[in-house]
């Protein structure tokens, strides 16, 4: 069975860290998703579709952290003064 774009995003660009207080909140998860799409040459889905997919997966987004190239892209695009 092929993984969906959303499953790939969660696997490649996030990880769960229940101990950290520095996790993504719900609003911050869509940004890393769009960065992951850019880097992986996927077309980002509209935000409403993204959130529905996260609900279907019981995504623990309050416990997620970013990882990998999408995290770096998201941080650099969010804080252009760092460049």
Give the tags.
mainly alpha; 7% strand; globular
Strand content: 5-15%
- Looking at how many chains there are and whether they match, the oligomeric state comes to single chain
How would a crystallographer describe the biggest sheet? 2 strands, antiparallel
Q: How much helicity do the residues have?
A: 40-55%
The secondary structure category is mainly alpha
Query: How far is the N terminus from the C terminus?
Result: 40 Å
Q: Encode the helix/strand succession as letters.
A: HEHHEH
Report low-confidence residues grouped into runs of 5 or more. none
Mean pLDDT: 84
Q: What can you see in these coordinates?
A:
This protein is 54% helix and 7% strand. By secondary structure, the chain is mainly alpha-helical. A two-stranded antiparallel sheet has the order 1-2. Helix 1 crosses helix 2 (26-40). The longest helix has 15 residues, at 26-40.
């Amino acid at each position: 069975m092929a993984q969906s774009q959303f499953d790939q995003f969660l696997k490649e660009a996030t990880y769960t860290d229940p101990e950290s207080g520095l996790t993504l909140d719900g609003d911050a998860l869509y940004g890393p998703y769009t960065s992951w799409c850019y880097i992986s040459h996927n077309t980002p889905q509209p935000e409403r579709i993204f959130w529905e997919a996260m609900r279907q997966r019981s995504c623990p987004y309050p416990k997620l952290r970013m990882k990998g190239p999408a995290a770096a892209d998201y941080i650099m695009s969010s804080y252009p003064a760092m460049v």
